[in-house]
Structure prediction request, 248 residues.
Amino acid sequence: SCVSVRADGRQLIFDAGTGIRPLGRRLNGIEQVDLFFSHLHWDHIQGFPFFGPAYNPNATINIRAIAQRQGPSAPVGEVLASQMRPPTFPVGLEVMGGKLEFEDVPQGEIVRLGEVEVRHAAVDHPNGCFAYRVDHGGRSVVYATDLEHGDDINAELAQLCQRADVLIYDAMYTPEEYEGGAGSSRKGWGHSTFEAGARLADHAGVRQLVLFHHDPSHDDSFMDELRERARKRRPSTEVAREGMTITL
Prediction:
C-alpha cells in the first residue's frame, strides 16, 4: 500500500508498502516529503528502508502516524527503526542521510501543510487504523484502507468522505468471500467489499470510488471481472492499479 498525492507543490505519501520504492526513484532529487501512515502493520511499512529520498542529505522527510487514544500503540519512529535492526535488516535507520522528522499526531488533530488540510478518522481494523482526507483548492481525496464495514455505516468515516472527489476504499474481498460462501468467512479480518464501498460512497455523495488493497490471490483477470461487477452497482467505480494517476 502506497498512495502519492501532489497538492500545492507538496508531496504527500500515504503508507510505505513496496510501492514506495519505485515512487522514490521517480522523486529523485525532491527535498521535502510528508509521509503519513494509516497504521503500522508490516505490509504498510516494509518499503520504507528502500525509499530513496530518505537517503538524500538535502531532503526532509516528515513522518506522521496517528496516536491512538486506546489500544496498542508505539511511536512511529520506534517502529520504523525496529524493522531496520539485525537480524532482520543489515543497517539501521541512522544510515539514512535525510532529515527524518517524526510526529505522533494526537487523534482528532488536523494537520495543515500550507494550503493543504489533512484530516483523519478511525476505522475498524485489528490493532487500529486511520483513514485520511486531503483537501486543497476545493478538491478532496479520501484514503480509506484496511477497514471493515459493519451493518451500519461508520458515521465518522462518512463525515470524512462527505462530497469527496475521490474515495480510495479497501475492497479486498468479494461479498461472497467476506460472508464465507467461497470457503471460510473473512469477517473480523479487518477488510471490506466493493458493495460496502459503494454504499458508503452513495451515502456520502462521493464522486469517484476507487477499489484498493486487492487480495493477492486475485489476478488481473479476476480484477477486470470485479470492476465490471462493481460498475453495475456504481457505474463510475474504478479498480486501482499500480501507477494509476487521477488528476483533480
In short: The mean pLDDT is 92.
